[in-house]
């Protein structure tokens, strides 16, 4: 679950850059709170989902080093270059943390949450 400051902005970010689609939306108007569950395009919702949590006026504390979201991607160099071209902040370009290790990059979403991108190939 990621708390987000602007629900529509976050939904658009994960749709555009990761191909996720809204599967369902649950509103709690009495709180007020809205939860949006997103899954990969073509997924019927039975697989992994990302939950976006929004409360109007809530201060969002970015998730970072001690608890970030990791996402596996193919062709990490091209993927990160495309994100950069579209204005997504890149905190770390793709590199291996140790010799022969898996390559990773770190970006931030619109709320400043760190997303670790892990090379799948």
Describe this structure in words.
The chain is α/β, with parallel strands linked by helices and about 120 residues long. The chain has two domains: about 1-55, 2,3-Dihydroxybiphenyl 1,2-Dioxygenase, domain 1 (Roll); about 70-120, Signal recognition particle alu RNA binding heterodimer, srp9/1, CATH 3.30.720.110. Helix content is about 20%, strand content about 40%. The chain contains two helices and eight strands, in the order E-H-E-E-E-E-H-E-E-E. The strands form two sheets. Strands 1-4-3-2 form a four-stranded mixed β-sheet, covered by helices on one side. Strands 5-8-7-6 form a four-stranded mixed β-sheet, with helices on one face.
């Amino acid at each position: 679950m990621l708390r987000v400051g602007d629900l529509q902005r976050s939904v658009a970010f994960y749709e555009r850059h990761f191909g996720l689609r809204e599967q369902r939306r649950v509103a709690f108007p009495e709180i007020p709170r809205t939860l949006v569950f997103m899954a990969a395009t073509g997924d019927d919702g039975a697989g992994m989902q990302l939950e976006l949590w929004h409360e109007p006026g809530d201060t969002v504390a970015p998730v970072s080093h001690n608890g970030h979201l990791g996402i596996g991607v193919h062709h990490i160099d091209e993927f990160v270059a495309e994100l950069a071209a579209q204005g997504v902040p890149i905190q770390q370009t793709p590199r291996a943390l140790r010799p022969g290790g898996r390559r990773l990059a770190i970006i931030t979403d619109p709320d400043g949450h760190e997303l670790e991108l892990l090379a799948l190939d």
